[in-house]
Amino acid sequence: MAWACVYSLPEALDVVRLSPGMKVLVLSPVVLTERAAELPAEALRTLTAGEVRVDVVDRESARRLAQQVARSAPGRRVRIHVQVDTGLTRAGVAREEALGLIEAIMAAPGLMLEGVFSHLSHGDVPGHETVARQVERLREVAEPVQRRLPGLMVHLQNSGGAWHVAGSAGLGLDMVRVGIALYGLQPSLEDVIPELKPIARLVAPVLAIHERPAGVGVGYGHTFTTKRASRLAIVPVGYADGYPRCLSNKGVVQIGGRTAPVVGRVSMDQVIIDVTDVPAHVGDEVTVFAWDPAAPNCIDGVAVACGTIGYEIATGLGHRLTRRIVD
Questions:
Q1: Are 248 and 265 in contact (CB under 8 A)?
Q2: Whole-structure pTM over 0.85, yes or no?
């Protein structure tokens, strides 16, 4: 069974609009306080319809959510997954408090406990010692609840854990939450998963080509100066689109089956590439990010050049880029 797993409630509402009937889990905890004591009406309607379930990690939020359901949707219930901090030290209820929170949720008329989960800190490292410890800590919380609620869902594995940790059935778990692997990107470049192949590339046309002599400064601050008579192509992609500024004077692209360097600073909306040695014309397609994992400008390769991870590059791709699905 396939679910959609998103971070925020607005994202979940978008999924429901685009794919009615899809089961959606929101990972960001619902936190209700005196200042923000209720969920928006549209969100509550979607939750009580049963398509979207949410993460609750504290008793006060559980109490306020149950009260809102009782007032606005009496007789309905919101499906809840409780996130337990088993060692990542991020979002999640402390293990010592988890069973008390779960009891409160199970006793609340407007709430229905559906799952208990956690998140691996080292799922991308095969055989890491923390994995078994996190599995055991999650079991300590989940097993007493499962005896009372046999249908309780328990989940822990992320993209790295789906490959590097024993199968869900062997761990007594019910599903995996695959994220970056859906895009064919590596959870870790130190422990590469050969089966993963990038599914996307970024292309843009050449807007203009300038012929310049030696000794000409290029781009903001003239951080690059032509050393010979050069042909410089302008490509309409910049850091506002998710092309990192740290690739100034060190990024590469492909055009006409050849590699061309990025010269000068990456601008907000454009980059300049040196096509002196490449047959190039206005309108030619430039591969900014390649989907060949061996290419230096695949997303994981770009991440290495920028000293970051593929997740950051992939999630930074801007909304003004046109998305197309191709066979």
A1: yes
A2: yes
